[in-house]
Design a protein that fits this description.
Elements lengths: L1 H12 L6 E9 L10 E4 L4 E4 L5 E7 L2 E8 L6 E7 L5 E5 L26 E5 H6 L5 H5 L5 E6 L3 E6 L7 E5 L2 E2 L18 E8 L3 H4 L6 E7 L7 E11 L4 E11 L3 E12 L14 E14 L2 E15 L17 E17 L2 E17 L10 H17 L6 E15 L6 E16 L9 E15 L3 E15 L5 E18 L2 E12 L3 H5 L1 E2 L7 E3 L7 E13 L3 E25 L2 E22 L7 E14 L12 E10 L5 E12 L15 E14 L2 E10 L24 E9 L1
Length: 747
């Protein structure tokens, strides 16, 4: 580590001399009128500005080399151009009018391109758009992204499912580092707040080449909010009320950027009572969450760095059955009390026509689960709940003994060197790794104390041809798991990826990708021997488990014209040595015994849809999509937890008035088909349909913008159960009608 730091300082010393600027003017390509308020952003430098009244812009402190600049403005095509520095002269840029939504830069893939330029198909969604649809939590909001579903325990505990794969098969990245928070447990949620998030990107399919183990099924890449533009300051306060849970989510933030230093801060709190169905409230789905995010950045000519910190504390009820209705918000027994710390450091050194990225992450997850028999009395009914609400408040200062208490500490690192471009080649080589320790402090123990070490080497290239782009790469990995009781497991893997993007017909973009992935068994699968609240089963691990490995073929075709877009995505995924839980027919302490087994598996399906914005009604949008996944074991039995097919229609209007800016309104209809393709220990799930609507926009109050939004989900208050709900075996319904009213005021 000392040698690495020494090399970094030497490189930094060689790179502090160059300093450049760029200036220019933005105009409408048709009218040649200047464009004011357009966003100009260097994604690699993480700095930018907005065009002024005459379309003029100026950005300084740009290092030598080749850098990409993204220009975006509502009503125009997003433009990506590459500029070589030093750059002499004035840059004149024409933007083409368009009613197509603005593109965003894709951060989760290594070459940071617009989606239209990317070889790999990546779904990207702004966090604000998910909020507009009435999502209560981040996990619930993710299910609005094509190909993503939510394996949920009520509202507070949810895990993303990508094309039928979840848990440790889906890797989550936050603040540029991999999230490690005991995610192997089905009743363990993300531990992340929706506040302070810029956008979410989803890689659907094996991404082990880029991220290593646990990315066998895909990646959820969560981009934190950006720092303010150069020499600007921003502050806002936001709150959202949810009628169904009588809950709220409130947060405030402030950020400021100069030429070199920049900082941001955001703090928030959320609190919810038991969610309500048409017939009853679901006991102990209540939860509280406190979230703090802070960041500081510095840029000096050819060097930039940022340090971010996220503290998330949550107290989550674990539902078991339906009790007396209550509107109280303090969780009953059993409940989880989780503290999650994420500290990340991201630095870049810009050399002549190359650069070095160095990312480090420190994560500390303190997870406690409390059961009622550790407190000495039961908690049922409103009268007892009021007593226990006071008890639980005291517990936070002088906590009772946790039945299950685990502390997970993780250090991860990610170092990538972007080589100078050689002809048509862009190439990256990298080193990634992780050191992790798990320790038990509770009365019960589900998995033992253990240490895990990961290391991986990768190389990937993007090759530009006249009518096509090719991306390829390879990676080797090693993982070691040591348990003091004597278990010492080593897992090795070699993976590769090959992709092609081309335009075969006028207007059609075709992407073909072939990739392998792997996943080493986690501690729970190898060593589990016990049960606890929330699992509702006794799990027994299997020390003989082998690596999971997969090969996935993806075909994506997209067509885009001025007023019509459509897409078809298909995939076929074969998984060798797929690990799954199955009951063995025995019971321990009243809980059914589940053991871990392996078998080959295959998953196939895809998504298709269209987007119509008819001329001359450019403000009107019709969107429709269909998603399907089928999962089979090697013996042709159905895999568990495969989401049902869904059909979604959205009618959306967008408008601007003198008194209302960025106005919108939408109606959403979703039909979920019945799921009868089930494993031996699942039950079928019936079809259901949900109707939602929403509206909003920005008004001016005291010369400042006030963003107002309202959304209604499950408008008809329909009774339904999602196939991926962990409350389904008990016949507990999903949430009924919910009205959310939110406001964000910029100070």
């Amino acid at each position: 580590m000392k040698n690495i730091i020494l090399i970094l300082f030497c490189l930094l010393g060689l790179s502090l001399k160059a300093q450049n600027h760029i200036q220019g003017r933005l105009t409408d390509a048709l009218s040649k009128q200047p464009i004011e308020g357009a966003n100009l952003y260097f994604p690699e430098l993480e700095k930018g500005t907005m065009s002024q009244a005459q379309g003029e812009f100026y950005i300084k402190n740009i290092p030598n080399g080749t850098h990409k600049i993204i220009i975006s403005y509502l009503g125009y095509e997003t433009l990506s151009i590459t500029v070589d520095f030093p750059y002499n002269g004035t840059l004149t840029i024409d933007l083409e009018p368009s009613v197509i939504e603005m593109e965003g830069i894709i951060i989760s893939t290594p070459f940071h391109k617009l989606q239209s330029e990317n070889v790999m198909k990546v779904e990207r969604e702004n966090a604000n758009n998910l909020q507009k649809q009435g999502a209560v939590t981040l996990a619930q909001g993710l299910s609005n992204i094509s190909g993503v579903k939510n394996n949920a325990t009520g509202l507070s505990i949810g895990k993303p499912v990508i094309r039928g794969l979840s848990s440790n098969r889906v890797l989550v990245y936050t603040q540029g580092i991999r999230l490690e928070n005991q995610q192997f447990g089905s009743e363990h949620g993300l531990g992340l707040s929706s506040n302070g998030i810029e956008s979410i990107e989803v890689i659907k399919g094996p991404a082990s080449l880029l991220y290593g183990s646990d990315a066998l099924g895909g990646v959820i890449y969560i981009n934190p909010e950006r720092f303010a533009l150069n020499n600007t300051a921003q502050a806002d306060i936001s709150t959202t009320y949810f009628s169904n849970t009588l809950g709220y989510n409130s947060h405030l933030g402030a950020k400021q950027s100069g030429d070199r230093f920049k900082f941001l801060f955001r703090g928030g709190v959320a609190e919810h009572a038991d969610y309500k169905t048409k017939d009853y409230r679901v006991t102990n789905t209540r939860f509280r969450e406190t979230d703090l995010k802070a960041g500081i950045g510095y840029q000096m000519n050819r060097f930039k760095t940022e340090l971010r910190y996220n503290l998330n504390q949550s107290k989550l009820g674990i539902p078991e059955d339906i009790g007396e209705p209550s509107r109280l918000k303090t969780p009953l027994f059993p409940f989880q009390y989780i503290t999650n710390h994420v500290l990340s450091s991201r630095s870049t050194i810009f050399l002549n026509n190359s650069k070095l990225d160095v990312n480090f992450g420190l994560l500390y997850n303190d997870r406690k689960e409390f059961e009622d028999h550790h407190h000495g009395e039961e908690a049922h009914g409103d009268e007892h709940e009021e007593e226990h609400e006071e008890d639980h408040e005291e517990d936070l200062d002088d906590p009772i003994e946790a039945a299950l208490h685990m502390k997970l500490k993780t250090l991860n690192y990610d170092i990538k060197y972007h080589l100078p471009e050689f002809g048509k080649f862009e190439t990256i080589v990298g080193l990634q790794g992780m050191t992790q320790s798990n320790a038990n402090y509770g009365e019960e123990q589900l998995i033992p104390d253990a240490t895990t070490h990961d290391i991986g080497l990768l190389a990937t290239s993007h090759i530009h041809f006249k009518k096509a782009d090719v991306q390829l790469g390879a990676r080797i990995d090693n993982r070691q798991i040591k348990v003091p009781s004597g278990i010492h497991k080593t897992f090795n893997s070699f993976n590769g990826a090959l992709g092609l993007k081309t335009t075969v017909l006028n207007g059609w973009i075709t992407r073909v990708n072939l990739a392998t992935g792997f996943r080493a068994p986690n501690l729970a699968e190898l060593t589990s021997n016990g049960s606890h609240e929330g699992a509702n089963r006794y799990e027994i691990g299997n020390e003989t488990l082998k690596n999971e490995s997969n090969l996935q073929f993806d075909l994506s075709m997209e067509y885009q014209s001025d007023h019509f877009e459509c897409f078809v995505n298909g995939f076929y995924n074969t998984v060798s040595d797929y690990i799954y839980l199955a009951p063995n027919g025995n019971f321990i302490d009243g809980d059914p015994v589940f053991i871990y087994l392996q078998d080959d598996a295959k998953l196939y399906g895809g998504e298709m849809g269209f987007h119509l914005h008819p001329h001359p009604l450019d403000w009107l949008h019709f969107e429709s999509s269909f998603e399907t996944v089928t999962g089979k074991q090697g013996n042709n039995d159905d895999l568990p937890l495969i989401p049902a097919n869904t059909l979604t229609h959205i009618c959306r209007a967008e408008f601007d008035k003198d008194w209302l800016k960025n106005g919108y309104g939408f109606i959403k209809y979703q039909f979920t088909f019945s799921q009868n393709n089930i494993s031996s220990f699942e039950t079928p799930t019936g079809a259901y349909q949900l109707l939602s609507l929403g509206a909003g926009g920005i008004i001016t109050m005291f010369n400042k913008p006030l963003d107002i939004r309202i959304a209604v989900t499950n408008l008809t208050n329909r009774r339904y159960i999602d196939h991926l709900s962990r409350l389904k075996p008990d016949g507990i319904l999903n949430m009924g009608r919910n009205v959310s009213l939110g406001m964000t005021y910029s100070l």
